[in-house]
Write a structure and sequence with these properties.
- This protein is α+β, with helices and mostly antiparallel strands and 612 residues long.
- 36% of the residues lie in helices and 17% in strands.
- It has a seven-stranded antiparallel sheet with strand order 3-2-4-1-10-9-11. Strands 5-6-7-8-12-13 form a six-stranded antiparallel sheet, covered by helices on one side.
- Strand 2 and strand 3 form a beta hairpin.
């Protein structure tokens, strides 16, 4: 687990640029930091002289913490170089084959396996990688750089292309040193996308000319003609599942593989089904020495720590509770900085604190991320399915004027004018289209910025359509991005067994009536009997959101918010509109506390990025 970065420029770049990129990535890799530089002729530069090409790595050492596993890592002849962020599992059989072909391993790290796998199989080795990753491979033999992201989008990778100069990094803020002041321009549609979806959907970022690599993609950059080509190598909807009946074995294997580490391992345990499935299997297979970390809230409406403690006690696991502070203002600037770009999921706050606590004890934690998007666990699915009769084409031709109000009827009217599939994304929105138009009167705003259902998938059953939309939008752009940013900023690696692609392919080979049940996830009954014994199927599902009233009413955070947003967005967001929405006091507000926080987070994030 690490931070990666680099650039391949037409002309030499000052050494301070790579150093600044490395500094921005350091929190992701606190154990070791290294930079390797080259000239145009592939000659390494040992000094801090300007150079056109550099690879940057900051390491969180989980497997084989010895210097032999440090990065950037090269082949023995120095012709292939790798920087890699992630964790790949179950590669030992392929490594044994490579050894039989006289390949010599100097470490027992997955990094070295990837390097040798590429040297032997070429970029097709990507299909052999089981796990999460964002990587860059510089191949001097073919004069090309490969970028790759894992299948589900667990690890981030951003890049910029300006005049044939390529730069990439794990964080947007690590790319800033490579950009001139003229290249640091806000993307107005990314601001609108943030208002719509509470994060900025891939491939957009907050800056024009900076893009995010989508999940399951490869990109090839040719050093000779400076061309950049991106293509998708995996999509769940396109793969054929394994034979029915293999998913329990694959899930058990996925959980077991994610306990392998040379550093301490724990688990994030809530009162819900997904993390309990993983904890139950850990207990069954003898991993009872792991600590379970749970977030607690002083407000009983949000707190489920007692349920998690009951689960931990039943399974024989030691549990620690992190009570999330109500007063987070002292840490708010750092939390927003660690979220890298504008990002307004309230659950990021407790996850940030939980990760900080856990990182004092362990360097790896297993999580239950992904279960809801795989098996229909959110209540919004059943709510939206009630209108599935509308289908893809049936719309009510309504003209809905812009309005500052967040009343439910406005969303209903807007949904009626959209296809049923597109309207689903409005249910998970921050500001609805009318509010966004009111906030940005000079911007022609699209209804949505998310990936929408392609025609070839519109024949699927309605629930499966909604799940496909979430797996391609909310999961990578919201759930997994938040998990990566809130954990890696504390030097903590999160592992999500339910997002193991071999398990998912096996799971999705089952019949729909086994996968999509009421209550949801009953397919796990036989795998984890504790779910029934603890009464989890009858337990009310809770979110992970903290109380927001205190934060959204803080006068310091609200002071001059309208004017500041207008100024920092060059008038895109109207001060008058913000002022109207906020009202004179909390009772006169036209928007929710969560929407107020969206505006606060946007303002602070943009101010921070501009100052860098």
């Amino acid at each position: 687990m690490c931070g990666i970065g680099g650039y391949l420029a037409r002309t030499p770049v000052k050494a301070e640029v790579a150093t600044a990129m490395q500094h921005a990535l350091k929190q992701r890799g606190p154990d070791r930091q290294q930079i390797v530089r080259w000239n145009d002729d592939a000659g390494m530069i040992a000094s801090d002289a300007p150079s056109p090409i550099a690879l940057i790595h900051t390491r969180l050492a989980i497997m084989d913490p010895r210097p032999e596993a440090d990065q950037p890592m090269s082949s023995e002849d120095g012709q292939i170089w790798l920087v890699y962020n992630g964790e790949v599992y179950d590669w030992q059989e392929d490594a044994a084959y490579l050894r039989s072909q006289q390949v010599r391993f100097r470490s027992h790290s997955d990094t070295e396996f990837i390097l040798h796998a590429y040297a032997h199989w070429g970029i097709d080795m990507i299909h052999r990688l089981r796990g999460k990753f964002a990587l860059a491979i510089l191949d001097w033999r073919s004069q090309e750089l490969w970028l790759a992201t894992d299948r589900l989008g667990l690890k981030p990778l951003l890049y910029s292309m300006h005049d044939g100069n390529l730069a990439f990094a794990s964080l947007l803020r690590a790319l800033l040193p490579t950009l001139s002041p003229q290249q640091r321009q806000w993307n107005p549609y990314a601001i609108d996308a943030y208002l719509a979806h509470r994060s900025i959907p891939c491939p957009q970022t907050i800056l024009q000319g900076v893009n995010r690599m989508p999940a399951g993609h490869l990109a090839r950059f040719d050093l000779r003609d400076r061309s950049f080509r991106l293509h998708r190598y995996w999509q769940l909807e396109d793969v054929t599942g394994q034979k029915p009946g293999t998913w329990p074995e694959q899930l058990s294997r996925a959980i077991d593989l994610r306990t392998v580490a040379d550093r301490p391992v724990g688990i994030f345990l809530s009162g819900g089904i997904d993390s309990t499935v993983i904890a139950s299997e850990l207990s069954r297979t003898g991993h009872r020495d792991l600590t379970a970390f749970t977030a607690g809230f002083n407000d009983p409406r949000f707190d489920e720590s007692s349920d998690a403690l009951r689960t931990a006690e039943y399974l024989g696991l030691h549990a620690e509770i992190m009570t999330i502070p109500q007063d987070v203002e002292g840490d708010l600037d750092q939390i927003i900085a660690d979220l890298d770009e504008p990002f307004a999921d309230p659950s990021a706050i407790p996850l940030w604190y939980l990760s900080r606590m856990a990182s004092q004890t362990v360097k790896v934690a297993l999580t239950g991320d992904g279960g809801d998007e795989l098996l229909g666990g959110y209540k919004r699915y059943s709510q939206h399915l009630r209108s599935a009769w509308r289908g893809q084409q049936w719309k009510i031709p309504l003209h809905v004027p812009a309005s500052p109000y967040s009343k439910g009827w406005m969303k209903i009217l807007l949904e009626a004018g959209m296809s049923w599939q597109d309207a689903y994304l409005l249910r998970f929105s921050g500001f609805h289209p009318g509010q966004r138009l009111y906030l940005q009167p000079e911007l022609e705003t699209p209804l949505l910025h998310y990936w929408t259902l392609p025609e070839k998938l519109q024949g699927m059953p309605p629930l499966e359509q909604l799940l496909a939309i979430d797996r391609n939008n909310v999961l990578p752009d919201y759930i997994l991005r938040k998990a990566d940013l809130c954990s890696m900023c504390h030097g903590l690696e999160l592992r999500a067994p339910l997002l193991d692609y071999r398990f998912i392919e096996a799971l999705y080979a089952q019949h729909a009536q086994e996968l999509y049940t009421q209550p949801a996830k009953q397919i796990f009954r036989s795998f984890a009997p504790a779910l029934d014994e603890l009464g989890l199927f009858s337990r009310k599902k809770r979110g992970f959101n903290p109380p927001l009233q205190h934060l959204a009413s803080n006068p310091v955070l609200l002071a001059e918010l309208d004017q500041q947003l207008d100024a920092i967005t060059q008038g895109q967001i109207s001060a008058t509109s913000v002022r109207t929405m906020l009202g004179a006091d909390r009772k006169s507000r036209l928007i929710s506390d969560e929407q107020v926080l969206q505006l606060i987070f946007l303002n602070k994030s943009l101010q921070q990025i501009k100052a860098l």
